Task: structure prediction
Amino acid sequence: MSELKISSDTTDFEVPASLDEQGKLTDGCVRRALATMDAHGFVVLTDLLSNAEAAFGLDLIRQTIDDPERNRCSFASETDNRYLRRDFCSLPSNEPVISFAATLCQRLEGVFTEYCGRTRALLEVITLTSYRGSSHQYIHRDPMGVISLLAAVEDVSEEQGGTVFAPGTHGYSGAEYRHGGAADELMRLFRIACNWHVLRHNLKKLWRMRKSGEAPLADGEFLDRVFSTRWDQHQPNLLRFVLGKNNEFSIRMLGPRTLWKLYRQRKTLSSRFRLVQAAPRKGTVILYRSDILHAGPDNRSPVPRRLFAMSIARDVIDAKYWHDGYSPHPTLTAEPLCLGDLLDASLVQRPSAAPERRAKALVN
Ligand SMILES: [Fe+2]
Result:
């Protein structure tokens, strides 16, 4: 996004995956991953999946997307979903899907079990596909107390919209003492400043799309995205912005005192916080603490962006809170699964790790 400074250098947050002979992350790798997640709120584990495993995941996504009866997600970007700018849907708890989810959990056992007990719930297994013309999500926090995973089953370029994170903005006991005790207030201001740019970016883009041959607007789409009364937290909806009916960003957040603080603190904000965009290569897995500030950008390329995602609770979770923030497939709701189920699952359908992966693991 031209108006917002976003770095694409994620080297500070990357940990190359190294596996032991059981196919799990080595102890050293687990320690580095945990240190990175604790310090920055997320970690980018490169080469966690072999090419065959990534292809297996991509197949699951394709099968789900091709199913006219698929279960569309009920959160985030509903309008984009309606106009096929995005296709966010949950994956059914069938054997291949559970096998893929279990492969990831077992490989990452050392990291997951540091945060989540074995009885903690698998909240959702979903796929996130974005097409050209989607909206850039507002910078937001997911419901706290969850570890979420994004797996790149094919290369994702910046133009396709790899996830944007604000490192170090996650919560923990005492996190408010950071930045001289002003952490919460500074993060609030930073988020507002970012989202002002996101709103402008989305509006400008929609205006251009009116006459665009690349991503033409559907009938009624412009009105639906800018003036609809329908709930959608991630559209540049001016009506809901002015009425104060968008919890992610609205005029209610732009009172005179806040505007004055934004002006006074502008240098502090740009020196203390930054945005980085992950453009994960095939096989990369990103783990993040759910309350870190982040956003799913718009896809600015003609190539669809597909990601596999799943989330595991760190504590007991109220059913309403769960279903407000996550989209379990009806088969998962009917037969809930927990982390322990995935760690104990036998992997009958797991594609074997590539030979080069096994060799690397033995060397490390
Ligand atoms: Fe999110």
Summary: The first strand starts at residue 6 and ends at 7. The radius of gyration is 20 Å. The chain has a mean pLDDT of 91. The pocket of fe (ii) ion is lined by residues 140, 142, 294 (CB under 6 Å).
